[in-house]
Amino acid sequence: MALLLEGRGLAASIRARVASEAAALGGRPPGLAVILVGDDPASESYVAGKRKACEKAGFVSSVSRFFDSVGPEVLLAEIARLNADPSIDGILCQLPLPGHIPLDAVARAVLPSKDVDGFHPQNVGSLWRGERGIVPCTPAGIMRLLDANGIDPSGRRAVVVGRSGIVGKPVAALLLAANATVTIAHSKTRDLASVCREAYILVTAAGIPGLIGADFVAPGAVVIDVGITRTAGGLAGDVDFESVEPLCSAITPVPGGVGPLTIALLLENTLACRKLAAG
Ligand code: ADP
Q1: Do 149 and 226 lie in a common domain?
Q2: Which residue has the least CA distance to atom 27 on ligand 1?
Q3: Which of 50, 200, 212, 224 has its CA 20 to 30 A from that of 25?
Q4: Are 208 and 141 in a shared domain?
């Protein structure tokens, strides 16, 4: 039986540590500002989860809400206001944004020192250069989950399915920094199954339920499923858990694997920004 890589307990311990560090700081609490555009129920529930986690950790949080039709200049002005607000340490824009909002302009508008999602080009560059910077929450959570379970990527083959700037690329950079030999696969990759079978660590973030079946997984592999899709039957990952689990040495459940760590790492990033603001 594969080791189940559960994220909830680890996330709870990270959150508890962040809360006690925040309390020990003195002065004002860390502040997180969330920008929410439109009324997508999934985004609403993610934002609600982030706010609740802030409250529990003794952080303050705010939400700036906009209609779907909002113009980019209005969003950029709000980001500029939050950049200048000394009570705000972290700013994030809940994704997805409507198509008419240029994501790149939004990512560049957030001060790098308040960019708790790690999407600003300066933080992206720092990540690939192996310098200190803010690391995107989900990829950072994946590395924590590996570490907490004694899984060392060093010298091993890692395959990442998906090349988004949120998960695929940054987790590939972190695995590389941890001395793995990394392959990034994507929608144009030929013979994805045989590429994935090379992996000791397989991270999948494609958002296609059932994409990863038993023929994609080498015996003894570690499988990290980041692809969360809402289906009629509930949340589904990319991995066909039933057929893949018996092959693995370790595998994440969906939900309850990587997901809980994303919010824990968001709090950790916000605390780091608060400390930065304090000098
Ligand atoms: P996330 O937000 O989880 O990073 P996105 O939806 O932004 O995910 O990106 C999905 C990623 O999955 C893309 O990089 C895309 O290339 C990859 N992908 C989509 N379909 C496939 C496929 N059939 N095989 C491999 N990769 C895929």
Answers
A1: yes
A2: 187
A3: 50
A4: yes
User: If pLDDT is split at 50, 70 and 90, which confidence band does 63 have?
Assistant: very high
Cα-based torsion angle of the residue sequence 81, 82, 88, 91 in order, rounded to the nearest 10 degrees: -170
Pocket test for ligand 1, best of 164, 188, 211, 225 (most atoms within 8 A of CB): 164
Whether 180 maps to a domain, the answer reads yes
Largest CA distance in the chain: 56
Q: Does 119 reside within a domain?
A: no
Assess whether 186 and 238 both reside in one domain.
Answer: yes
Q: How confident is the model at residue 44 (pLDDT cuts 50, 70, 90)?
A: very high
32 part of a folded domain: yes
Q: Identify the CATH number of the domain in which residue 37 sits.
A: 3.40.50.10860
pLDDT digits over 195-233, tens only? 999 999 999 999 999 999 999 999 999 999 999 999 998
| Residues framing ligand 1 (Cβ under 6 A) | 161-164, 166-168, 185-187, 189, 192, 205-208, 211, 226
**Same domain membership, residue 253 and residue 141:** yes
Residue 242 lies in a domain: yes
Residue 278 has pLDDT above 90, yes or no: no
122 is catalytic: no
- Write out pLDDT tens, residues 252-276: 999 999 999 999 999 999 999 999 9
| Model pLDDT, residue 279 | 79
Cα 236 to averaged position of ligand 1 atoms, centre (Å):
15
Scan for tokens 């999602």, then name that residue: 117
How many domains in the chain? 2
Alpha helix stretches (DSSP H) within the chain: 8-25, 41-56, 72-84, 103-109, 121-129, 137-148, 168-177, 192-196, 241-244, 259-277
Assess whether 94 carries a catalytic annotation: yes
Burial classification of residue 19, based on how many CB atoms lie within 10 Å of its CB (0-12 exposed, 13-18 middle, 19 or more buried): middle
